[in-house]
UniProtKB/TrEMBL annotation:
<feature type="region of interest" description="Disordered">
    <location>
        <begin position="1"/>
        <end position="91"/>
    </location>
</feature>
<feature type="compositionally biased region" description="Basic residues">
    <location>
        <begin position="70"/>
        <end position="80"/>
    </location>
</feature>
<feature type="compositionally biased region" description="Basic residues">
    <location>
        <begin position="1"/>
        <end position="14"/>
    </location>
</feature>
<feature type="compositionally biased region" description="Basic residues">
    <location>
        <begin position="49"/>
        <end position="61"/>
    </location>
</feature>
<protein>
    <submittedName>
        <fullName>Transposase</fullName>
    </submittedName>
</protein>
Length: 137
């Protein structure tokens, strides 16, 4: 059964998703959270050159598929297009665990509709729904 380890609410505006800069991985023994996860999985929305460069610079291993147009552009450039991005299909297939967890959280009406005006109140609603899922036998 999948468990929610951390939640981050972000606005989805602009060309650069701010979620990459706000990643925090809690430590099991407590203390300051890590800002560099062991591995990051994302969908094609995060496959931009800027995001990949950011992840490489921070030495974060990632599994993000290339979009078709990016693949075609790289092939069209030939040798100058660079090598294809590394991609592990088995690890990418495990991404659906996160999707299933999100759908289970959305079974709670308050999470699905998001009627809360303030982000911190909605974060509390998501936390409450996650606690209910965690305590459910």
């Amino acid at each position: 059964m999948e468990r929610l380890k951390a939640a981050r609410l972000v606005k989805a505006r602009g060309a650069r998703p701010p979620v990459l800069e706000r990643i925090r991985v809690p430590r099991p023994a407590g203390g300051r959270s890590r800002t560099r996860p062991d591995h990051l999985s994302g969908d094609t929305a995060y496959s931009s050159r800027r995001n990949r460069r950011y992840l490489r610079r921070r030495q974060i291993k990632h599994t993000i598929p290339e979009r078709r147009d990016q693949r075609a552009h790289r092939r069209r450039r030939g040798r100058n297009g660079g090598r294809p991005a590394g991609f592990d299909p088995a690890r990418y297939a495990r991404r659906n665990e996160v999707e299933r967890l999100i759908s289970r959280l959305k079974l709670h009406r308050a999470v699905a509709t998001r009627c809360d005006k303030r982000a911190y109140i909605f974060h509390g609603t998501v936390t409450g729904a996650a606690i209910r899922l965690w305590l459910k036998p």
